User: Which sequence fits this backbone?
């Protein structure tokens, strides 16, 4: 790493809250505390609960009371009368028949259910996001490490070639070829350093803390295919995925809203109880005591509202149709997501096995090429190509392992069964760095 790169990294760390993340669970706990999207989803649940309470409150008795004290002056027949007066009023109104209020309460219940499902989806998305960004950082670390190892190996090759050149056993183009490869690797190292910084910043975005060191994936892990048929997993996703449950609740809420608007064509019946007490006086009477009790049943029949009720119902029906189409789009996207993750995870499991074989073959090939170079039966170009193939196989194996884990978690998230237990399982595959 160049001096300027080191200075830039130090400045970056100074500007960011520092934290040594020991493992995946540390990152996840930090993200739980810091993720604004998760907190927003929780606030939406609180919002839905408050809206449901408001809708229920419309169905319950409405009680109002007022009190008044006044100083009164009356001028009558050239005579002034001054007196104090009090007035008390209390009323109770209770809806007896109001279908619009009832269905609005049902609508609010479904909205609360929708927000609860969206919160669950936000929790699942955070788990997947942590996994993807964590292993993306590990992948970037491995890419940088392997590039640096290849630089060391190529530098050793260059020293060896220069010694052979002094003995006139190789030509100057051979030296140039190794130098060119070394220069290319140094350029790759710069790009790898940049990618590592970017992936660490992605983790910092989740946790608001910059991870200095991440635990590595251990070697002895079994990478198995996902069990079960894809068609069965798609059915599981349709019933368990929280985002589809949220859309279904949104449909129910929109359907109830249509019923709310239709109910506004119907009569509304409510019970009214009033009590009125005053000694303020009325017209020519001074300080007279009046008490009035009223019990009434009111019937309100809507006749014409200028078309507002009709257009509100049409608006509600259009919103219902929109949400139904949105659910259909989400269902299709979910089926594709489950299929892609299922296929990719199983393909990665097979790719890991193939990459392990390819790596062993590449290592043997490089060893043979290096021996051949000593005896003059192989060229430096052949050695460089063999060495490049070996490091390429190492990168492919590393990337396949990380892809297997992220695609497996992506699959669990798609079918709606991802949990913190899955994070604990993946975390058990990591080892602390010394």
Assistant:
């Amino acid at each position: 790493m160049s001096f300027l790169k080191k200075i830039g990294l130090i400045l970056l760390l100074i500007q960011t809250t520092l934290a040594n993340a020991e493992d995946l669970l540390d990152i996840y706990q930090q993200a739980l505390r810091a993720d604004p999207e998760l907190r927003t989803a929780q606030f939406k649940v609180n919002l839905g609960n408050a809206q449901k309470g408001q809708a229920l409150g419309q169905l319950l008795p409405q009680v109002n009371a007022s009190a008044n004290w006044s100083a009164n002056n009356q001028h009558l027949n050239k005579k002034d009368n001054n007196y104090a007066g009090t007035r008390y009023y209390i009323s109770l109104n209770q809806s007896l028949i109001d279908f619009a209020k009832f269905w609005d309460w049902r609508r609010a219940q479904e909205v609360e259910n929708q927000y609860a499902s969206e919160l669950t989806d936000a929790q699942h998305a955070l788990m997947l996001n942590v996994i993807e960004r964590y292993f993306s950082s590990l992948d970037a670390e491995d890419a940088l490490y392997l590039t640096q190892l290849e630089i060391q190996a190529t530098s050793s090759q260059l020293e060896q070639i220069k010694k052979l050149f002094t003995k006139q056993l190789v030509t100057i183009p051979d030296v140039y070829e190794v130098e060119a490869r070394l220069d290319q690797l140094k350029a790759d190292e710069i790009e790898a350093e940049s990618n590592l910084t970017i992936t660490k910043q992605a983790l910092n975005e989740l946790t608001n803390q910059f991870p200095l060191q991440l635990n590595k994936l251990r070697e002895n892990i079994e990478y198995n295919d996902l069990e079960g048929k894809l068609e069965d997993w798609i059915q599981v996703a349709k019933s368990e995925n929280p985002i589809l449950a949220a859309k279904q609740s949104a449909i129910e809420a929109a359907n109830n809203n249509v019923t709310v608007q239709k109910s506004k064509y119907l009569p509304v019946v409510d019970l009214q109880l009033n009590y009125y007490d005053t000694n303020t006086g009325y017209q020519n009477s001074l300080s007279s005591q009046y008490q009035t009790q009223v019990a009434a049943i009111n019937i309100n029949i809507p006749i014409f509202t200028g078309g507002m009720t009709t257009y509100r119902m049409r608006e509600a029906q259009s919103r219902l149709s929109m949400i139904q189409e949105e659910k259909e789009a989400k269902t299709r996207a979910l089926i594709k997501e489950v299929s892609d993750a299922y296929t990719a995870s199983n393909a990665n499991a097979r790719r890991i096995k193939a990459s392990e074989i390819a790596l062993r073959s590449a290592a043997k090939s490089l060893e043979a090429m290096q021996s051949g170079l000593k005896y003059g039966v192989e060229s430096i170009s052949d050695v460089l190509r063999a060495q490049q193939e070996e490091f390429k196989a190492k990168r492919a194996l590393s990337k396949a392992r990380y892809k297997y884990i992220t695609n497996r978690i992506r699959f669990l998230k798609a079918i709606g069964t991802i949990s913190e237990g899955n994070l604990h399982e993946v975390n058990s595959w990591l080892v602390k760095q010394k």
User: Anything to note?
Assistant: Confidence is low (pLDDT under 50) at residues 1-19.
